[in-house]
Write a structure and sequence with these properties.
Blueprint lengths: L4 H22 L1 H70 L2 H10 L16 H23 L5 H22 L1
Helix pairs in contact: 4-5
């Protein structure tokens, strides 16, 4: 069985192909370099994607913080507005309470005060004011004497207080 050269070439061709495959397999340095390059690319891509995700996560976190701060600012603005409104109302109410008409009504209705009649008004000269001051001094001296001598005569004390009340009432009416 002799083989023809074309058959022999066909038998040799598959063995030559396997030989070439073996040479490629045996050439592990290139394969390892390719594998290492492929792994390095995968690591770079993975790190890039992880970095991008971290950036997006940080961006989302900051957006949430900014939104929260905006809500807080709006809440504080509303509180300031309410406080200003209350302050304005309080000022208005204070102005109404301090009005002359309100004070006069309170004095006449609740305290029973009346305007003085024309004959109840006294005008004092400087001489009258000096005499009233002297009288008040004399009253103070008399009270001191009455206190020291009150054990001897209690009626003396009543007389001094009666006179003092008269002078003080007259002086108070005259000063007003």
């Amino acid at each position: 069985m002799a083989m023809s050269s074309s058959a022999h070439a066909q038998v040799l061709a598959p063995s030559q192909a396997s030989e070439q495959r073996r040479v490629k397999v045996l050439d592990g340095k290139q394969a390892k370099a390719r594998e290492d390059a492929r792994r390095a690319d995968i690591v770079r891509i993975t790190l890039s994607v992880a970095t991008l995700l971290m950036f997006l996560l940080g961006l989302t976190f900051m957006s949430a913080k900014i939104y929260s701060a905006g809500v807080d600012i709006n809440h504080l603005k509303n509180e300031i507005e309410q406080t200003n409104t209350l302050a304005s109302r309080a000022e208005l109410e204070l102005g109404q309470m301090a009005s002359l008409e309100r004070i006069e009504a309170y004095a006449t209705e609740r305290l029973g005060m009346v305007y003085p009649a024309a004959n109840d008004i006294y005008l004092l000269s400087e001489d009258s004011a000096r005499r009233i001051a002297e009288g008040q001094q004399q009253i103070a001296l008399a009270e001191a004497e009455a206190m020291s001598g009150s054990e001897e005569n209690p009626r003396w004390r009543e007389i001094v207080y009666g006179i003092a009340g008269l002078f003080v009432g007259t002086a108070s009416a005259a000063e007003n």
